[in-house]
Amino acid sequence: MNISSATEGREIGNRIVLGGIIAIVVILAGAAVLLFVNLPDANAFNARVEQLFVENDTLTGNAEIKLLEIIAQSGTAFSDTLSSYRFVIFVLLVFSTALLVAAIAFLVMLIGLTRRMGQIERKGIEVNSLLISRDQKAVYLNNFEFKLTEAAIETLSVLAEARMDDEVLSGAEIEGVISGRDPSDCEEAAGATRIKRLRDTLGNQMVSELLVKNIARKGYMLAIDKDVIRMV
Fold first, then answer.
1. DSSP per residue, 11-41
2. What's residue 5's pLDDT?
3. What are the pLDDT digits (tens) for 129-157?
4. Are 192 and 171 in contact (CB under 8 A)?
5. Measured between alpha carbons, how far is residue 17 from residues 14, 21, 109, 116, 213 in Å?
6. At what angle do helices 188-202 and 150-164 cross, to 10 degrees?
7. What are the residues whose beta carbons fall under 8 Å from the beta carbon of 185, sequence distance 6 or more?
8. Phi and psi of 73, rounded to 5°?
9. Alpha-helix residue ranges (DSSP H) falling in 2-135
10. Which InterPro entries does the entry mention (predicted)?
11. Measured on CA atoms in the order 174, 177, 180, 182, is the torsion positive or negative?
12. Parts of the chain with a pLDDT under 50
């Protein structure tokens, strides 16, 4: 896939996501409008009480008037309660909309991160420079400094030299180069232990696992371009 097609694909994906978010907002807004339209009028009860006063003007007794006043007060209380319910429903709708939009945004970010991690796993780390300084016992990876132990520096140096020669070293061969013995006299586990210690010293699991590749039934190698390696 070339750069233009990849960029076009990302733009289409962004448009789809934006369209989905807009659709959710529109649907929730439509549901809110329908809900508020179908809610009873807050003044409906008061209007009915007023109608009772008008239609029953013959009710002049103290008890009857008192009853109508109680009904009127009940209508006012109902109106206030319904108004508060409207506000609560509005807040809940806004909150649910925000949660849905945030959930979609996080989902898209997670999918994008997963795809990016998949690309990194397939291609390895994009390293522009790898400088190994034996004197300072440090490694500069894309200008990020990693302080290593002497044993880790030796292991990384062996891997770097092998990478510049397009070689893949087994654990026994790594141990043989570092110890100065013949690889046949070395154990595979010794070299594997050195690789593990190197990865532990690098610290960042993703960096160490992708930088030092384990090729099945062959050995270990640095998964970077040999032209970016420098040793001082």
1. HHHHHHHHHHHHHHHHHHHHHHHHHHHHSPP
2. 47
3. 888 888 888 888 777 788 888 888 888 88
4. yes
5. 5, 6, 11, 18, 36
6. 110
7. 176
8. -65, -35
9. 3-38, 44-55, 62-123
10. Sig_transdc_resp-reg_C-effctor, WH-like_DNA-bd_sf
11. positive
12. 1-6
d(CA 50, CA 95): 38
pLDDT at 100: 78
Rg (CA), the chain: 37
DSSP secondary-structure letter at 169? B
Strand partners, 147: 138
pTM of the model: 0.47
Kindly list the strands in the beta sheet with 144-147, ordered across the sheet, starting from the edge strand earlier in the chain: 144-147, 138-141, 130-133, 229-231
Distance CA 82, CA 64 (A): 27
- Taking the C-alpha atoms of residue 112 and residue 135, their distance in angstroms, rounded to an integer, is 41
Q: Are strands 229-231 and 130-133 parallel, antiparallel or unpaired?
A: parallel
Q: How many CB atoms lie within 10 A of CB 190?
A: 15
Tokens 């030299």 — which residue?
Answer: 161
Distance CA 205, CA 208 (A): 5
